[in-house]
Design brief:
heterodimer, A: 367 residues, two-stranded antiparallel sheet, B: 201 residues, three-stranded antiparallel beta sheet, rod-shaped, binds iron/sulfur cluster
Chain lengths: 367, 201
């Protein structure tokens, strides 16, 4: 229960920051100013918006399938929120440390699609229905390259446990039960003979341990944009030409919950990207001879320093990725449906399959 | 083949153009530290300014209006001879003028024209006005002018109708009565004169 509340609180905090950042970043990239009135530099704008949405009338269309309509936003948000359960925040803080975290995450986040269909169907509106179909088609398609990219990282790490994957990417590797005698080699290749187990830092991040994962990272990042309905893959929403997709009929706080789910999804996919590819809560600073930067900037697991450093590194990496997501939104035009499918099935999926193959071979080199 | 219309494609080109897009938005993001300042049009940097955010926080800061800016209309009613030309030329019919003849000359305008009419109504509906300036052009006494004031929004749209008349309704009624009385007197005098002529014959 405590973990639930903590995660919910942290998530809401991050989402409010993100919603504000999105407006400011968008404004700055378009030579505008963004919110300026509510609070210093408009920083309370997101809060004000939430309050405004809370006051709005809760409209349920007369001919809608009321049960599905009301349940859908809750299901969508719950599906995304449940994904946070297996995200490790620090070396020893993880809401639910189950051994098959990656698998669980992929499974539970897919529930999202059911929620979208429920929302579209329940609204009893052609536009909502078509919007839902578009969202579902896109999300289901992009789960394949995303899944393959994650698979390649899992193959390199030989684990479905997010916490184990995190430990593998840092100087604390040998402190994880079951990995006391494992070693990290430069680029993961033992034949090079450079042992990086205690060097840590960026040299043990997955994208460095097996540089092929850099490709998977890019694939995963692109696919995750599509999964969280972010531009340039925001075709389900396409607010400028379709006036929103599956959520046209939603108003007030239900609408807010749908958007909360979208923003939570952005945070979640970035967290997963950081954990699988960018060293999780590990510091990027390596130990260099007697200068043990990695140990200093990781703290001691279980103590306050370990918690603070862990949260700091995890969040700062996540915020970099989130910023990139925002920047992409304000840089690239929206893709057409056929271009979207072309990218997914003819480009990302084959490349991801190739990466899985190479990752398998790489793993052979690593042992 | 013309290089300009040659279709570029291929992985390298795509990546290059994607990255150049990113660098463009990043440049704008970085420049957001600078901001336009409310400088007068004669300022050297007036046209160089939007290197960064181009927005001004409007009610708090605004670009100075040129001295001869032509925005809100003003009528110097004391100079108006109530000739109705402005109401006639207005393309959107937003000027309403009623006139009452005076019993005698009521003075001269600042350019020496004699005034013979009162204006119990002189309304300009600035919500309809399209600021074409035609009315100011035809005004024979130059009493109708455009001022540099452009910020005059109102909560109630009725307040956008500007009343320029300097007569209260009572005064207007009084002038009307006076004129009617004068007409009656003239008519009576005429009738008397006619009767006198008839009886003389
Ligand atoms: S400026 Fe043009 S539109 Fe406005 S009152 Fe004069 S003639 Fe009419
Ligand atoms: S044109 Fe000028 S003088 Fe004539 S009625 Fe209009 S404001 Fe008065």
């Amino acid at each position: 229960m405590l973990a639930f509340l903590l995660t919910l609180g942290a998530l809401l905090g991050v989402v409010v920051v993100l919603a504000y950042a999105e407006r400011k970043v968008a404004a700055f990239m378009q030579d505008r100013m963004g919110p300026t009135e509510a609070g210093p530099q408009g920083s309370l704008q997101a809060v004000a918006d939430v309050l405004k949405l809370l006051q709005k009338e809760d409209i349920v269309p007369a001919a809608a399938d009321k049960k599905l309509f009301k349940l859908a936003p809750i299901l969508i948000f719950a599906a995304v929120f449940a994904g946070f359960a297996v995200i490790p925040f620090t070396p020893d803080l993880i809401p639910a440390g189950i051994g098959i975290g990656v698998f669980y995450l992929l499974a539970i986040v897919s529930l999202d699609v059911i929620g979208l269909l429920m929302a579209g169907w329940g609204s009893n509106n052609k536009y909502a229905m078509l919007g839902a179909m578009r969202s579902v088609a896109q999300i289901v398609s992009y789960e394949i390259p995303a899944g393959l990219a994650i698979l390649s990282a899992v193959m390199i790490c030989q684990s479905l446990d997010f916490q184990e994957i995190s430990y593998q990417q840092g100087a604390l590797m040998n402190q994880f039960p079951g990995m006391e005698y494992d070693m990290n080699w430069l680029f993961g290749i033992e034949a090079l003979g450079i042992n990086t187990t205690t060097v840590g830092g960026i040299t043990t991040w997955n994208i460095f341990r097996a540089p092929i994962l850099l490709v998977s990272f890019v694939i995963y990042f692109i696919a995750s944009l599509a999964e969280s309905n972010r531009a340039p893959f925001d075709i389900p929403e396409a607010e400028s030409e379709l006036v929103a997709g599956f959520h046209v009929e939603y108003s007030g706080f239900r609408f807010a919950v749908l958007f909360l789910a979208e923003y939570s999804m952005m945070v979640l996919v970035c967290l997963v990207a950081v954990i699988l590819f960018l060293g999780s809560w590990n510091t990027p600073l390596p130990n260099i001879g007697p200068v043990s930067l990695a140990y200093w900037s990781t703290g001691i697991p279980g103590e306050l320093s370990g918690i603070l450093w862990g949260v700091f590194w995890l969040l700062s990496k996540t915020f970099v990725l989130l910023f990139l997501q925002l920047q992409l939104r304000w840089t690239y035009p929206r893709l057409r449906v056929d271009q979207l499918m072309h990218l997914c099935w003819k480009v990302l999926t084959p490349v991801a399959l190739g990466v899985v193959l190479i990752a398998g071979i790489w793993r052979l080199l690593m042992i | 083949m013309n290089k300009a219309i040659k279709q570029h494609n291929g992985f390298g080109y795509v990546v290059k153009s994607l990255l150049s897009g990113l660098s463009l938005t990043w440049k704008h993001f970085k420049n957001a530290r600078n901001r336009r300042t409310p400088d007068y049009v004669s300022d050297e940097n007036y046209f160089k300014q939007p290197d960064g955010m181009a927005t001004l926080k409007y009610p708090y800061e605004s670009i100075p209006v040129p001295d001869n800016g032509r925005y809100r209309l003003h009528n110097e009613i004391d100079d108006c001879i109530v000739c109705d030309l402005c109401a006639k030329i207005c393309p959107v019919n937003c000027i309403t003028i009623d006139s009452v003849k005076a019993t005698e000359d009521i003075g001269v305008t600042s350019d020496g024209t004699k005034k013979r009419l009162y204006a119990p109504t002189f309304d300009i509906d600035l919500a309809k006005c399209c600021y074409c300036g035609l009315c100011t052009t035809v005004c024979p006494t130059d009493c109708l002018t455009m001022t540099p004031v452009y910020d005059f929004s109102e909560v109630n749209i009725k307040n956008m109708v500007y009343h320029f008349t300097n007569l209260t309704p009572e005064q207007a009624e009084e002038k009307k009565q006076l004129f009617a009385k004068q007409q009656e007197e003239i008519a009576a005098a005429k009738a008397a004169a006619l009767a006198a002529r008839k009886s003389n014959q």
